[in-house]
Amino acid sequence: MSKRRKRASSKVTRLQAQTRAIRLFNGLILCLFGLSVGLVAVATALPQKRKLEEKEMEYAHYLKREQEELALKEDKKAAYEALREDREYLEIHARDRLPLHREGESVYRIERNR
Length: 114
Fold this sequence. Notes:
There is one protein chain. By secondary structure, the chain is mainly alpha-helical. 83% of the residues lie in helices and 0% in strands. The protein is built from two helices and no strands.
């Protein structure tokens, strides 16, 4: 009987060793699978991150352009209001842009070659 018990216990020990080896192998495979999935996720995120950075730079460029246009609009509006309401500004503008002058004044214009 002792031989049978030895054989039975050696079978159990061998099965336990095989089970441990299979668990270790399965754990290793699972770790490699998780690592590969993580690397794929990172690899697919990199191009999207680059596109996001490009879009953010483009957005910043458009915001800057919008600010410049708003400043130009504000300047034009201020000039328009000054022409409508400020007689002195209107006179200065007319003397500068148009060939207008008061009686008895001599105006000398220097024209540049463009």
